[in-house]
Amino acid sequence: MLRRSNPIRFAVVAGLMFFMHATAGNVADAQSAKAGAEFTTGSSDPLIEFVNLQIRQTWEDNELKPSPSANDAEWIRRVYLDVIGRIPDADEVAAFLEDSDKTKRSKKIDELLANPDYVRNWTEIWTNLLIGRNTPDRTSRSGMRKFLRESFARNRPWNEIVYDLVTAEGHYEENGAVNFILAQLQGNVNNEDYHVEATAKLTRILLGMQVQCTQCHNHPFNEWKQNQFWEFNSFLRQTRRIDHDKYDPESGQDVDDYSELVFRQFGGPVYYEMRNGLVQVAYPKYLESEVSPDAPNRREELGKLMAHDDPSHTVAKAMVNRTWSHFMGYGFTRPVDDMGPHNPASHPELLDRLSDEFVKSGYDVKQLVKWICNTEAYNLTSKYNSDNDFDNPSAGEVPLFSHMYVKTMNAEQLYDSLLVATNADQSGAGNFQQAQQQRQRWLQDFLRIFGGNDEDEPTLFSGSIPQALLMMNGPLVEKAISAEKGSYLYSVLSNPRFRSDNSRIQALFVSALGRFPTRHEQSQLSGAIKRYPKKLTAFQDLYWALLNSNEFIVNH
Amino acid sequence: MKTSTPAGMSRRHFMNHLALGGATTLGATHFLSTLEANAAQVSRDQKACILVWLGGGAPTIDMWDLKPGSKNGGEFKPISTKGDLQISEHLPKIAQEMDSLSVVRSLSTREADHTRGRYYMHTSYVPNPTVVHPTFGSVASYELGTKRKDLEIPSFVSIGGGSMSSGFLGMAHAPFVVDARGQIQNANTGGMNKQRLEQRLGMLSTIEDGFIKSGRGDVGQAHKDVYKKAVNLMVSDQMNAFRAEEEPAEVRELYGSTPFGNTLLMARRLVETGVPFIEVQFPGSWDLHQNVFNTLKDQRLPLLDSGISGLVRDLKQRGMLEHTTIVVMGEFGRTPRINQNVGRDHWATSWSALIGGGGLQGGRAVGETDADGLRIVSESYLPGDLWATVSHALRIPLNTVHTSKRGRPMKLANGGQPIQDLIG
10 Å Cβ neighbour count for A536? Predict the structure, then answer.
């Protein structure tokens, strides 16, 4: 669950105001000054050195100067959003900025990985990837979540998670792993298209391979032939969903009960039609490994090959590429799940080495996150300058990671961050249950209006008018700025430490944006506030503006 | 850029919410002032399409292509119309307008699953794991909406529920969803006065501009642009188009004075405002696995009859029918065979859609099914052919090609061809 504000929060923020103005800029400057030398977050893993050197090499090759390190305020907001899916609250920001430990960034990464919100965040990310934001019919979102939650909480090796996703059978709540394939199986089981969606999703998400184009034709640019799709497909033919209904005495009708993923009798090859009308056969084959069509359980064979017997570590590479992209905004290939000979990686040695080390670590997902977050590239500011403004992947350039790329918050991050910044769900709530119900209603609003495109690159801003309206006039933000007892705004306005306009402006900035206002903002906004007849309204509107700002909704 | 004039603020919609005296000064921002004072009266001859969606899959064999004398014929009789075809006896008012409308009786669309059929009929493409295709409303928005500079409200509106995704055409062309009463979620500022809204937007501008200038790419400006559109929408006069209740009683009566009729009336008002594509969700499911005849006779058909006939008559009276194409269909038809629950099940092999207006030929039955409704005995048509016909009516060039996010070219209406009997 999310952290709540606590009494020390204000004390820390208040104390910080002086400290921050004096030092925040200097810390960043000092860091950037020595950025040319040896960058460190405090972690001393040789692999991180290797990554830094590789990335630096591409900067040199492209005659580019990287942006300086992000200052602590910029970095702490970023690492919270990326690792645990929400912004830090004001006292978390304050405590980090005050900390003078030189290894504090590396320590913070470890701390966040141990935070329960890490499990919650990665469960949401992977649930959305595996079954989409809109749960398909007769698929159990709670089952999928439970499986992932338990897996991430125990930091299970990624290859074991993958093995379960590929091979699971059974009841969709008792064995939640089945929901990944279950979600892709709709329609008539005897239709030759029945396993097409599952084939496409499994290869794309778990292997980073887009073989689905070869469903209908040979790949136009590479050696992947049409048979490859159907070879993968033949592994999945021995599976089907069964939907169980039950009699509902109230309506007198049969209603949904539960679904399960079961073994289906299927032998021999798969037949498919070429564009010229010729019919071909495909046998189960994973990359270079052929599997006997008589194997008793083809999915189990596929799971073993993917998880344990693949010399090219395709599963590991796909995970490394996707995870890198999660943190950096771009992966080593674009799209991140289209890896292959036709689409060479931007940093091939780096991808290979990270993948090898990931395998050696026992597919340790937390270790992978640690490596990435401790790299120099992850710690740079998102501001670019005239020396590296051409490092602009959104214009189609190959990413050089010489500055952080700005990402847009997804629906879940935005929602959770709004709650952190406002305590809206605590505001004027009668009791716990009411608060929970209200939270659920708001979340549904958010998912419906913001959760549209599962597949968009995170660096794209695809904002819509309904999204802007929800933020401007919706019930959550309205509640957030109501200044009712329990809300963050109330706490600031009623706290004797924040009596001046300026200190209140600063407190609201820290809470929403994780930073202090610039001198220009401070003067503009305090001027605007003076023109209000009532102070309360003025600060409500300032907080409204902060929560609605472009800076709030991006992770930079 | 326009400066502050009271005219910009004298919009009725806005005044409804604002307790304002005389002129007020504008704040530091020009969010509101960028609006043109007098929204141009959009000319009525701009092309538009109204899709009436019969969700669940309508039994078209009982509506547009009856089979008297067959064991599949069911309980209804055909009646003659003003056009050169017969339709169901329970659609007598539409029968009077059939000189303006035609029925395509030979759709064969292969997808008999609700989700897949809905996707196919909206996009002309079968679902494909590599790409999300845009629903045709998004295509119309992309092709026509972007050219209508006077349009302050979204160019693809879905009334009474969601349509489908705008897919690779992006969120700017996603259906703008309003409920059946034309309520737009969160568009109301809850009685806040204009001055305060200006002050809020002024502070927002200060913060947003700082981020835009910080040198972090285009995201900051893109965000500001969307907010500007949203504010424009909140205060635009064109929002009146959503208020069907402001129509005179006799006009509402024309549409049957039902909630469904009001949604069609709203659609007409949106067409007048310049919106090129409106989708109206029929209230109530057509997924009639049981008790099909009573449900049709007592509920679905009377509602549809009064609504559609009213829409056609109203558009005709206003001289708008020539420019407004109407399509009435769902995701598939229903089985000719009547099941043991006196229902009909899913059927995509041979079914019908109603289409007319927009300069298309009326009064025709296009294509033919056999005596039991089981097979098509003429040329058959795909959704792409229907949408190509609509494209023709909307003057969207048929050789238009859109590019998916992965750079794959996608033909308009999946390469479908306009139905010759309708455009001839």
Answer: 12
- Give the tens place of pLDDT for each residue, A126-143: 999 999 888 888 999 999
**Calculated CA dihedral for residues A477, A483, A484, A486, nearest 10 degrees:** 90
The domain locations on chain B are 39-189+242-423
Contact A472 B227 (CB under 8 A): yes
| Number of domains chain A is built from | 1
Instruction: Please name the residue of chain A whose CA is at the shortest distance from the CA of residue B188.
Output: A473
B221 to chain A: nearest residue by CA? Answer: A550
Cβ contacts of A212 on chain B, cutoff 8 Å: 128-130
Q: Which residue has the tokens 């796909």?
A: A318
Instruction: Note the pLDDT of residue A217.
Output: 63
> Does pLDDT of A168 surpass 60?
yes
> How far is it, in rounded angstroms, from Cα B265 to Cα B50?
11
Contact list in A for residue B223 (CB cut-off 8 A) is 461, 463, 550, 553-554
CB within 8 Å: B176 and A466: yes
> What does the alpha-carbon distance between residue A301 and residue A296 come to, in Å, rounded to a whole number?
9
Residue A347 lies in a domain: no
**Would you call B174 an interface residue with chain A, using a CB distance cutoff of 8 Å?**
yes
Structural domain includes residue A315: no
What are the phi and psi torsion angles at B393 (to 5°)?
A: -65, -35
Q: Of A269-278, A297-306, B116-125, B341-350, which range is least confident? A: A269-278
In a domain, A104, yes or no: no
- Tell if the pTM clears 0.90, that is, is over it: no
For residue A466, list chain B residues with Cβ-Cβ distance below 8 A: 176-177, 185-186
Question: Which conformational region is residue A42 in: left (phi greater than 0), alpha (psi within -120 to 50 degrees), or beta?
Answer: left
CA angle A369, A374, A380 (to 5 degrees): 115
- CATH code, residues B39-189+242-423: 3.40.720
Q: Are strands B101-107 and B365-366 parallel, antiparallel or unpaired?
A: parallel
- Where in the sequence is the domain holding A263, given as residue range(s)? 122-307
